[in-house]
Design a protein that fits this description.
By secondary structure, the chain is of the alpha/beta class. The chain has one domain (about 30-45, about 50-344): Alpha-Beta Barrel (TIM Barrel), CATH 3.20.20.70. The protein is about 35% helix and about 15% strand. The termini are far apart.
Length: about 350
C-alpha cells in the first residue's frame, strides 16, 4: 500500500530526555539559590512589594558562550552599584524568524545551518548553569514548547514573543511555567492580544507535551498568576506616557494589576539600536513624573555595539558583536544602567 505519512520527513533522530540532561548537568546549589531568590524578587516587583525596577539586559541572542560569560561577569560586577535595580541577563537561545534564517543557539550552535538540537540544548544548559552560579539571574524567550523541560529550572523570567503571544500553544505553555512571564504586544502593536494572553495563561490547561523521561504525555497545569505585558512597539513606537496609560487602563479593566515592561528595542527604537538609550531615558522621565505602572525595561546590549552577518568563514566573526539585532555596546550599557538607577 502506498504510504500516507512522513512523505516529507528526511530523518527522525531520538533526543536525550530532560531527566538525562539534568542528571548530566544538574542545577547546583548556587544556581538554585539564584533562581529561587530572583523569581521571588520579580514576583514582588510585579506585585509592588519590592520597590526595585527590573532591567532585562543582554545580547539579542547567544551564539558564543565565551563572550556571553564575559558579558555576564561585567554585568554582575556592576550590580552592587545598582541598588535600585533588579538586573536580569538576556540569554536568548531561540529566534523566531519571519521567513527563514538562523534559528538560534539551541537549533544551530555551530552556525553552519545544520540542525544540532542535542548539542544546542546541552551547551545552552551549561551556560545557564555558569551564569546563575555567579549569582546573576537569567531571562529567555521560550519558543519551542518542548524546550522548557530541558532548561526552565535555571530561568528566572521568560518572555513570549510578538509572533507567538496569540498562539494557543504558547499561552498553554506559559500557564505551566514556574517563573513570571511577560507577553509582548503583536508585531503590529496590538496590546489587546497580550492582555488576552494573560487571561489564558492564568487559567489551568491540559495539552500535549513531554515528561521528564521524554515520553509523550498529557500536561495539566494550574495556571500562572505571574504574568505581565511588554510594550515593544509595532507600526509605531508605544512607550509614550499616553500609550502606557492606555495599556495600564486596559489591564485594570481586564482585572489585572497594571504591570508593564517597555522593550526599548524593536518597534520602539525603530530598529535603530542607538535609539534604545533615549527610549530608556524617556521611560525614566515618565516614572519621575509619577508613572507607577512601568515595572521594567528590556534592552539589547552586547560587549561591542552593532551587529554582523554570519560570515562564510566563521573565523572572521567579530568577538562580542551580535549576529542578529544590533545592540548597544558595553560603555553605553554601563552608563545607561547607572542613569536608570540614579533616575529612581
Amino acid at each position: 500500500m502506498e504510504p500516507t505519512d512522513d512523505l516529507n520527513i528526511v530523518s527522525v533522530s531520538p533526543l536525550i530526555s530532560p531527566f538525562e540532561l539534568k542528571q548530566s548537568l544538574p542545577i547546583t546549589p548556587a544556581s538554585h539559590q539564584t533562581v529561587v531568590n530572583s523569581r521571588q524578587a520579580i514576583v514582588d516587583i510585579l506585585n509592588r512589594k519590592d520597590p526595585r525596577f527590573m532591567v532585562v539586559m543582554g545580547p539579542c541572542s547567544i551564539y558564543d558562550p565565551d563572550a556571553a560569560l564575559a558579558y555576564a561577569r561585567q554585568l554582575q560586577a556592576l550590580v552592587p552599584r545598582l541598588p535600585k535595580l533588579m538586573v536580569v541577563m538576556r540569554t536568548y537561545f531561540e529566534k523566531p524568524r519571519t521567513t527563514v534564517g538562523w534559528k538560534g543557539y539551541i537549533h544551530d550552535p555551530h552556525l553552519t545551518g545544520q540542525t544540532d538540537i542535542a548539542t544546542g540544548l546541552r551547551l545552552s544548559r551549561e551556560l545557564l548553569r555558569q551564569i546563575t552560579e555567579m549569582g546573576l539571574p537569567v531571562a529567555t524567550e521560550l519558543l519551542d514548547p518542548i524546550v522548557p523541560q530541558y532548561i526552565a529550572d535555571l530561568v528566572s523570567w521568560a518572555s513570549i514573543g510578538a509572533r507567538t503571544t496569540e498562539s494557543q500553544t504558547h499561552r498553554e505553555m506559559a500557564s505551566g511555567l514556574s517563573m513570571p512571564v511577560g507577553f509582548k504586544n503583536s508585531t503590529e502593536g496590538n496590546v489587546d492580544v497580550a492582555i488576552n494572553a494573560l487571561h489564558a495563561a492564568v487559567q489551568p490547561h491540559g495539552f500535549l507535551g513531554i515528561n521528564q523521561q521524554g515520553e509523550t504525555a498529557i500536561i495539566r497545569t494550574k495556571g500562572n498568576p505571574h504574568g505581565h505585558i511588554i510594550l515593544r512597539g509595532g507600526r509605531a513606537p508605544n512607550y509614550d506616557p499616553a500609550t502606557i496609560q492606555d495599556a495600564a487602563a486596559k489591564m485594570k479593566k481586564a482585572g489585572f494589576t497594571p504591570a508593564i515592561m517597555v522593550d526599548c528595542s524593536h518597534g520602539n527604537s525603530n530598529k535603530q539600536f542607538q535609539n534604545q538609550v533615549p527610549v530608556a531615558h524617556a521611560v525614566m522621565a515618565a516614572i519621575q513624573a509619577g508613572n507607577r505602572d512601568v515595572v521594567g525595561v528590556m534592552i539589547e546590549s552586547n560587549l561591542m555595539e552593532g551587529n554582523q552577518p554570519i560570515p562564510a568563514d566563521l573565523t572572521q566573526i567579530r568577538y562580542g558583536v551580535s549576529i542578529t539585532d544590533s545592540c548597544i555596546g558595553w560603555d553605553d550599557t554601563a552608563a545607561l544602567l547607572q542613569h536608570i538607577n540614579q533616575a529612581l
